[in-house]
């Protein structure tokens, strides 16, 4: 039999999985995705740069104030056009997930997953580009001369009297969970065999921490 | 044989003696060492840890507030209140200069933390200036002086400041009687032309402003100290008097002739009600109420010679006068006083004030043998009182209900006030007591003839007092407030308020506006530069003409804890500080021509030395 619409070849359990993925994706808009913590003898409590998909939080002004000594350009939300785009991309992807959930097409979902992964890789590359840009384009007239450096996306680094720790945050974990849920929707046993089982499956919820929203 | 026996006995005895002395001594040394160690541990607060209490101590004729941590007795800060302070620019910047009102010093005796339901609420601290008749409020969120009010008609509010249970009023009775309205009257007319005034001040916490609600006119006695009642006595104020002799010279002799002076009881609520009716005369715009016109609002109780402190017990049932020249503490009962008043049982009148007989109010006299010069009473949470003895240089602990003396400990030397932990509230903690001493003498490394004063810290949580430490303090400790640290909630950075007048928050917005011979700078201070004019070729140089009025508004845009910037102008005798997030203003006339370096006076950063600029004054 032939249909104009894509083939409905994913089981109902995949639908639940995808709806949950869409919800988590929307949820990630309110959580930080990445952060960098700065420690120095004078800052035992640490200074933070916290990156949300929608903007920056943490002690940005203080970090900027200190960074001007090494000639680093100041961070601000205005300097990252990404913040104006990412929320729409996230909402768009979430809508696609909802559509995929109801259409239950393996092909459509596969497309969404590829799109998602591409977006992720582009995002990481973009971050790496920014970090390189901030760390290497230091103002030569700055009072403190520092060798250009590239802060890592993940892990520890030392700059002058500061030790920094870069890490992914709750929002990024949610994104990972979204990928996991999409993979589950595509490749769970019922989807692979095309044999729906009577036992309703419960999708495993990804960890969501309270109070992370800005 | 006998010889042998004697020798043996002698040997045995001396052996025993040596052993006893030797071992007893060892035991004692061990004991002493471990006691010293445990005492040391009680006052040692390691780096990074904080003290349990704030001690907010009057700085006497330094005019400033001293802040210590208890039990370490580390001095944390001097907060300028009544006197100019170069280190913080207090009295230089526009706001504090206006607040000081042209005075350069004050004599701060008695701090009082604002109270709610008779307990410290930790929001504000009030201070009296005995020298120049002022009252100040220190905002304990910022530890900055928020307001100062000049009180007319007063002769030094020594007997203040004491707050009523909910800080409805802050009472300040006068020390010297004077003619009101700054009038002249010869000392021969003391009896009729001189008045003793009590100022009743209100404080608006939202507006952070004082209001002189009314003044009470009293006979020209000297009012020494006072306290506000609590609970059952909450509507009352008690005050000690001296010089009821009306001596106008050589008070040392002439004001010490009578065996009894008076305690004065005033019902402030009745007076406030009277003032509210509006039927009260005004003197120079101040409502002035004569309590003799308000039935039941004033009574006098004779009390042993020249009393100093009077303190109301935590439960509010009694008030205790410390005799100073009569070496005893007298416990009076409010209930007995109320009964006498109700029955109209008076021993007579003085100046039209009903006098209640001493015996009719007395509960007991407490006279520890040889304890001389009692000045002040503090309390713990177990019904005990503590008195400082100026002359016999000790603290005496005794039970209020029984009068039994429980402990006496020497202090080094000659204590004035004592302050116990939350000891003048309805709920004292009974943990620590400080004696603020007037004489340090040989206690510390010598610094020549000008000595520090001293303070002794006691642990009063046990049956007997344990002396923990003596510390030198700057002149001069009078009364203090010891408040649990968690009751004070500070802000360490001023919040960024973009609507604040004269504030600038971005370097690009820094600008100079010139109006005739006025030059207004709206600038910023940040690590490690000043920007007065973002457009200028040299943003940190200001050029004006000789004779211009220059107004620097500086905002510290480093919103980071403890990044204070200073702002000193060389040879102009000017300096101020700007706290993180604060906008501060310095106003002056550039009357000297020349080139005047400007620099950051408060070490702020690795490039602090470079944080500078120029004031260029073109000759006329
Ligand atoms: Cu500075």
TrEMBL record, chain A:
Instruction: State if Transmembrane is listed as a keyword.
Output: yes
Positions of transmembrane segments: 12-34, 85-103, 108-131, 167-187
* Highest taxon in the source lineage: Bacteria
Q: Where is this region: Disordered?
A: 193-214
Question: What keywords is this UniProt entry annotated with?
Answer: Membrane, Transmembrane, Transmembrane helix
Q: What is this protein called?
A: DUF1461 domain-containing protein
Q: Which organism is it from?
A: Deinococcus rhizophilus
Supply the source organism's classification: Bacteria, Thermotogati, Deinococcota, Deinococci, Deinococcales
Automatic annotation (TrEMBL), chain B:
Q: Which CDD domains match?
A: N2OR_C
Matching entries from PANTHER family are given as: CYTOCHROME C OXIDASE SUBUNIT II, NITROUS-OXIDE REDUCTASE
Would you tell me the protein name for this molecule?
Sec-dependent nitrous-oxide reductase
Identify the EC number(s). Answer: 1.7.2.4
Q: Is Hydrolase tagged as a keyword?
A: no
Enzyme class of the recorded protein, top EC level: oxidoreductase
Location of the protein in the cell: Periplasm
Question: Upper taxonomic classification of the species?
Answer: Bacteria, Thermotogati, Deinococcota, Deinococci, Deinococcales
**Chief site of localization:** periplasm
Give the molecular function GO annotations: nitrous-oxide reductase activity
Keywords associated with the record: Copper, Metal-binding, Oxidoreductase, Periplasm, Signal
Q: Report if keyword DNA damage is assigned.
A: no
Task: Give the superkingdom in one word.
Answer: Bacteria
Query: Source species, please?
Result: Deinococcus rhizophilus
């Amino acid at each position: 039999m032939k249909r104009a619409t894509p083939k409905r070849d994913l089981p109902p359990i995949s639908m639940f999985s995808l709806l949950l993925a869409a919800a988590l994706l929307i949820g990630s808009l309110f959580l930080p995705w990445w952060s960098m913590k700065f420690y120095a003898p004078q800052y035992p409590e640490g200074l933070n740069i916290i990156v949300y998909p929608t903007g920056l939080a943490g002690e940005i002004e203080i970090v900027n104030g200190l960074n001007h000594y090494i000639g680093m350009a100041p961070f601000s939300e205005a300097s990252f056009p990404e913040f104006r785009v990412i929320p729409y991309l996230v909402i768009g992807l979430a809508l696609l997930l909802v559509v995929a959930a109801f259409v239950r097409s393996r092909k459509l979902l596969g497309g969404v997953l590829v799109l998602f992964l591409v977006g992720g890789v582009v995002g990481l590359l973009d971050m790496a580009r920014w970090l390189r840009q901030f760390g290497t384009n230091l103002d030569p007239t700055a009072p403190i001369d520092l060798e250009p450096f590239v802060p890592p996306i993940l892990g520890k680094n030392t700059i002058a009297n500061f030790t920094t720790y870069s890490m992914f945050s709750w929002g990024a974990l949610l994104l990972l969970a979204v990928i996991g849920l999409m993979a589950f929707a595509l490749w769970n046993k019922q989807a692979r065999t095309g044999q729906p089982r009577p036992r309703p499956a419960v999708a495993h919820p990804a960890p969501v921490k309270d109070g992370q929203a800005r | 044989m006998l010889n042998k026996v004697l020798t043996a006995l002698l040997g045995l005895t001396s052996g025993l003696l040596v052993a006893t002395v030797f071992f007893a001594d060892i035991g004692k040394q061990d004991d002493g060492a471990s006691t010293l160690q445990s005492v040391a541990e009680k006052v040692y607060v390691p780096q990074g840890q904080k003290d349990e209490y704030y001690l907010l101590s009057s700085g006497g004729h330094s005019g400033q507030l001293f802040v210590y941590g208890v039990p370490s007795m580390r001095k944390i800060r001097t907060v300028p209140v009544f006197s100019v302070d170069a280190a913080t620019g207090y009295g230089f910047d526009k706001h504090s200069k206006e607040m000081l009102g042209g005075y350069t010093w004050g004599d701060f005796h008695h701090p009082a933390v604002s109270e709610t339901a008779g307990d410290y609420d930790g929001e504000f601290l009030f201070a009296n200036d005995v020298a120049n008749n002022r009252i100040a409020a220190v905002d304990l969120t910022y530890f900055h002086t928020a307001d100062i009010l000049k009180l007319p008609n007063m002769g030094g509010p020594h007997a203040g400041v004491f707050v009523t249970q909910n800080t409805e009023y802050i009472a300040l009775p006068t020390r010297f009687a004077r003619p009101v309205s700054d009038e002249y009257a010869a000392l021969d007319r003391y009896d009729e032309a001189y008045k003793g005034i009590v100022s009743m001040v209100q404080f608006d916490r939202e507006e952070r402003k004082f209001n002189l609600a009314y003044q009470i006119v009293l006979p020209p006695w000297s009012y020494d100290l006072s306290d506000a009642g609590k609970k059952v006595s909450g509507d009352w104020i008690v005050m000690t008097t001296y010089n009821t002799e009306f001596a106008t010279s050589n008070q040392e002799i002439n004001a010490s002739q009578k065996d009894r002076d008076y305690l004065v009881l005033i019902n402030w609520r009745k007076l406030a009600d009277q003032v509210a009716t509006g039927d009260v005369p005004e003197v120079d715009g101040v409502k002035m109420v004569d309590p003799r016109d308000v039935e039941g609002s004033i009574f006098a109780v004779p009390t042993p010679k020249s009393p100093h402190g009077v303190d109301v017990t935590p439960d509010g049932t009694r008030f205790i006068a410390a005799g100073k020249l009569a070496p005893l503490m007298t416990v009076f009962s409010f209930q007995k006083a109320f009964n006498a008043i109700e029955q109209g049982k008076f021993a007579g009148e003085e100046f039209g004030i009903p006098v209640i007989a001493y015996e009719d109010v007395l509960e007991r006299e407490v006279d520890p043998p040889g304890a001389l010069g009692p000045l002040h009473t503090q309390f713990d949470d177990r019904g005990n009182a503590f008195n400082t003895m100026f002359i016999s240089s000790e603290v005496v602990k005794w039970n209020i209900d029984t009068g039994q003396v429980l402990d006496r400990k020497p202090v080094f030397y000659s204590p004035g006030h004592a302050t116990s932990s939350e000891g003048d509230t309805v709920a004292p903690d009974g943990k620590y007591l400080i004696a603020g001493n007037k004489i340090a003498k040989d206690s510390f490394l010598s610094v020549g003839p000008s000595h520090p004063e001293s303070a002794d810290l006691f642990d009063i949580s046990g049956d007997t007092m344990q002396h923990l430490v003596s510390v030198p303090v700057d002149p001069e400790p009078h009364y203090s407030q010891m408040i649990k640290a968690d009751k004070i909630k500070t802000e360490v950075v001023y919040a960024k308020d973009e609507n604040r007048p004269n504030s600038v928050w971005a370097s690009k917005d820094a600008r100079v506006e010139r109006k005739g011979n006025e030059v207004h700078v709206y600038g910023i201070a940040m690590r490690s530069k000043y920007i007065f004019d973002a457009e200028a070729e040299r943003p940190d140089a200001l050029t004006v003409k000789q004779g211009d009025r220059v107004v620097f508004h500086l905002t510290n845009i480093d919103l980071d804890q403890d990044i204070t910037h200073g702002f000193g102008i060389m040879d102009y005798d000017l300096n101020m500080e700007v706290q993180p997030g604060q906008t501060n203003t310095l106003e002056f006339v550039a009357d000297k021509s020349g080139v005047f370096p400007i620099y950051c006076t408060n070490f702020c950063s690795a490039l602090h030395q470079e944080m500078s600029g120029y004031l260029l004054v073109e000759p006329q």
